[in-house]
Amino acid sequence: MTVPRPAAVIVLAAGEGTRMRSATPKVLHTLAGRSMLGHALATAQALDPERVVVVVRHERDKVAAHVTEHVPTALVADQDAIPGTGRAVQVAMTALDAAAQASAVAALDGPGVPGSASGVLLEGAVVVVAGDVPLLDAGTLGELLAAHHADGNAVTVLTTEVEDATGYGRIVREPGTGDVLRIVEHKDASDAEREIREINSSIYVFDAAVLRGALGRLGRDNAQGEVYLTDVLAIARGDGGHVRALRADDPYVVEGVNDRVQLAALAAELNRRILEDWMREGVTVVDPATTWVDVDVELERDVTILPNTQLHGATVVREGATVGPDTTLTDVEVGPRATVVRTHGSLAVIGEKASVGPFAYLRPGTVLGRKGKIGTFVETKNAQIGEGSKVPHLSYIGDATIGEHSNIGAASVTVNYDGVNKHRTTIGSHARTGADNMFVAPVTVGDGAYTGAGTVIRRDVPAGALGVSAGAQRNIEGWVQRSRAGTPAAKAAQAAAPAAGTPLDGSLSPQARAELERAATAARGIPVTPPPGLPGQPAQLSDPPSPTGGQTTAEHGTEETSTR
User: Fold this and answer.
1) Which of 138, 182, 214, 366 is the least crowded, having the fewest Cβ atoms under 10 Å away?
2) In whole angstroms, how far apart are CA 437 and each of 458, 471, 538?
3) Which segments of 164-282 are extended strands (E)?
């Protein structure tokens, strides 16, 4: 079907929406990732009109800013204190005629003749839609436009039938022809007219000249004291024009939102339709009842969405990937055959065959390479993690770059903030970092480097080097019995003493006596002499080599530095 291009689309968005009971203008409430006004603008743009104009009043600045964000070329017309949809369309037509005149002046090659564009007015079909009808689609609106042109109508109105028409304007048709005689608002309708189930959707196509002429003759003689746009139909018919209706079989596409109950109902219906469309395109949705997908999300075939998953914004899930359960992604790209489990993420990229979760938090700027892993209880931000690299568990990786095929030990943190500025940590490829590491940025760990468990990395670690900072372990024997006497721990230690080889008479080992003497000496303010090095104790790696040729840990083999 070829859809004629309309001269303009008018979107009515001036109402306050008091029944929403919200500080947010009604048309800016969202469903499926777009505001209601955003849905209306997207549908309007799909018709490729010459101009779009949005009529605003309540919270004018917020609504106008939203319009400009979505359709920068749209006109914004301000409705004054005169109420009613008729008045809204009057101010919209004034803006459209002014824009047509401005375009005519701009099209002149020379300076032109004063007043040469004063008689220029908008011509063609004018579509009028409400800003609170979010399920209206371009296909339905295109059919309305096509019928308007095919029949040569002055006005064509979109209608539908509902079981309970309370509150809606009724379509009164002419017997025999079926043409529309008039639209009667519920409060102005007679008892007989209130029995009519065909209702007005407030969606129209007008001939611009017919609309302009009728608007000038509208009054406010009705129960509401408003300027009704619906009166244009009777005026157009009285002038000899054809006024006809196109009935939509699906009431949802013309249903408006007046309160949050209706908003929730339409959001659920729109989500059901989105999921149904994707399932027909080859996507598996295991539990549609707990799955929510925004209108701008892109899914490829053989994607599997598990229960309790929400995909928001411009999220893209590539072929064969699995997302969920219990996952929320906003503006995230998931690569082919990747797996994302129990994860919250935004503005992140997950590579092909990568694995994320469970219980992962991907913050903006996270990029996980092909076959990479972000594991359990891991948070990332502004981090690039290379192909095959892993951050398996219990870590924070922020403002960091990790090369390929590296492994980050459990409970590692990139310490990126000095209280004023953020700094970056760089870890090379094929590196192995130990558990419970702190990387105090800015710092670099080279390719193939290792770090020991419990290490605080404050200086760069060269490629192929081992970085450690932990000193030798010391055990103070008998400390619990002396300092925590009578506690369950002390009793348990005493009971275990024979097995551990501790003297039962309470005597102290040489090491324990030395520690006790050092503590007493320190309490009297006497300088303490450090204990001599024990046999097999490793030298601090940051110290220069011993002139006596002391042995290293590797030579003694008495201390193991674990990378996990």
Assistant:
1) 138
2) 11, 14, 20
3) 170-173, 180-184, 198-207, 243-247
For residues 507-518, give the mean pLDDT. 66
Of 393, 405, 430, 556, which is the active-site residue? 393
The token duo for 318 is 């590539």
pLDDT digits (tens, 9 = 90+) for 366-420: 999 999 999 999 999 999 999 999 999 999 999 999 999 999 999 999 999 999 9
Residue 126 has φ and ψ, to the nearest 5°, of: -115, 120
pTM above 0.85, yes or no: no
Query: Which residue bears the tokens 């799909």?
Result: 46
Q: Tell whether the model's pLDDT for residue 531 goes beyond 70.
A: no
Q: Tell me if 55 sits within 8 A of 92, measured CB to CB.
A: yes
Do residues 564 and 434 touch, judged by C-beta distance below 8 A?
yes
- Evaluated on CA atoms 57, 62, 66, 67, the torsion sign reads positive
Spatial distance between the Cα atoms of 245 and 172, rounded to a whole number of angstroms: 10
Is residue 393 part of the annotated active site? The answer reads: yes
For residues 116 and 358, the model is more confident at 358
Q: Of all residues in the chain, what percent carry a pLDDT higher than 70?
A: 87
Q: What is the mean pLDDT of residues 425-432?
A: 97
Cβ(127)–Cβ(149) below 8 Å: no
Q: How far apart are CA 392 and CA 385, in angstroms?
A: 12
CA distance 401 to 203: 54
Cα torsion 256, 259, 261, 264: sign: positive
pLDDT tens figures, 434-451: 999 999 999 999 999 999
**How far is Cα 308 from Cα 210, in angstroms, rounded to an integer?**
52
The span from the CA of 286 to the CA of 393, in Å, is 28
The pLDDT, as a whole number, for residue 556 is 35
Phi, psi of 265 (to 5 degrees): -65, -45
Confidence of residue 185 (pLDDT cuts 50, 70, 90): confident
Residue bearing tokens 């997207």: 42
In the chain, what's the furthest Cα-to-Cα distance? 118
Residue 564 burial class via C-beta count within 10 angstroms: exposed 0-12, middle 13-18, buried 19 and up:
exposed
Please count the other Cβ atoms lying within 10 Å of the Cβ belonging to residue 474: 10
Tell me the sheet residues that pair with 516. Answer: none
How far apart, in Å, are the Cα atoms of 288 and each of 294, 319, 426?
13, 19, 42
What gap in Å lies between CA 452 and CA 469, rounded to an integer? 8
Q: Provide the 8-state DSSP code for 479.
A: H
Q: Give residue-wise pLDDT tens across range 231-289.
A: 999 999 999 999 999 999 999 999 999 999 999 999 999 999 999 999 999 999 999 99
Q: CB count, 10 Å around CB of 78? A: 12
